[in-house]
Write the structure tokens for this entry.
Amino acid sequence: MKKILTAVVATIALTTSSALLAKSAAESVMVQDPYARAMPPGQPNSGSFMTFKNMDSVDHAVVDAKSPVSKVVELHTHIHENGMMMMRRIDKIDIPANGETVLKPGGLHVMFIGLKQDLVVGKKVPVTLIFEDGSKKEIEAPVRKIMMKMKSMPGMKMHKMH
Ligand SMILES: [Cu+2]
């Protein structure tokens, strides 16, 4: 009887310690260089970009995001469809074990729909990231001006002609 009891106690102790060692997704994923896109006053939408670094040996994912700056916040990606670049809402952004996922203009982004305030350079946008295990991470994304590739292309053509 005493032996069985000891075994039970040992099992409980082991389970407890491994549960304590397991880190939440929010603790395992580092967020680097977050920023939000500056928009001219009156523009309804904007987005935020950053790099997720997964320091854990298991995959993680961001499944939702919240921010007080807009009515709706969604996770988006860009896809090419019939020669057009289109945005699409996605359920999650995967971050592979010991890997990284980059959110950038023209790719994955956190979308702000229905801005409640103008996003001007110098402001910081609070964003709450929600992970697959329910853990959360609060970040602040400084507002930056972002040059669009499309705008720089005519200039590049002109440069070649000279
Ligand atoms: Cu979008």
Residues 47, 76, 87, 109, 111 surround copper (II) ion (CB under 6 Å).
